[in-house]
Amino acid sequence: MAFKMKKCAHLAVIDTVKTPKEYQCEECVKIGGGWVHLRTCQRCGVTLCCDSSPNKHASKHAQEKKHPVISSAEPGEKWMWCYEHELIARY
Length: 91
Known about the structure:
Layout: H1 9-12, H2 26-31, E1 38-41, E2 47-49, H3 57-65, E3 69-72, E4 79-82, E5 87-90
Antiparallel strand pairs: 1-2, 1-3, 3-4, 4-5
């Protein structure tokens, strides 16, 4: 039996991955918070903290702004995640 791979139109249209301007969560800096890992929004380029971080700014941003795709901003990690379809893509 062959398995069908789910496809995501949000991930498929990204041809150039945005990278962080600075290695920090822009929202945590404003409130004096901390983060565990960082993610960069692939629509607007903002870098925010992950869901393992206390404030979960990246997923809040995705939901509020309707920007579904983030990439890892961690050095050496090359993956993107679509919040809407809950799919990962490596690049």
